[in-house]
Amino acid sequence: MAESDEEKVAGRLHGEQFEPEKEENILARLVYMLLIAVMISLAQTVLGAATVLQFIVMLTNNKQPNERLADFGTDLGIWIAKAARFQTAASNVKPWPWTELD
Length: 102
Fold this sequence. Notes:
Organism: Parasedimentitalea huanghaiensis
Strand content: under 5%
Keywords: Membrane, Transmembrane, Transmembrane helix
Shape: flat
InterPro entries: DUF4389 (IPR025498)
Oligomer: single chain
Protein name: DUF4389 domain-containing protein
Number of domains: 1
Radius of gyration: 16 Å
Transmembrane segments: 30-59
């Protein structure tokens, strides 16, 4: 039985993630948190641009979205969610580029 899109996204968000073997220094975590905060800000800008582009595509393509752009938005949203989990200490797993993008 094929998984629905929602199940696939849930698996990528909450699926098996390998926690780091050793606890990291709190100052190192601060540096990672600052870097990830900048990356989240950049991701929000990219998301805004993708949103405008997808709307233009839908205007010119009889209300049909570009599938690749929609999939990119899903991937970006998952990355932002994983980054937010690290930022709020809900997870010790750093998002890409420190781990696989899956």
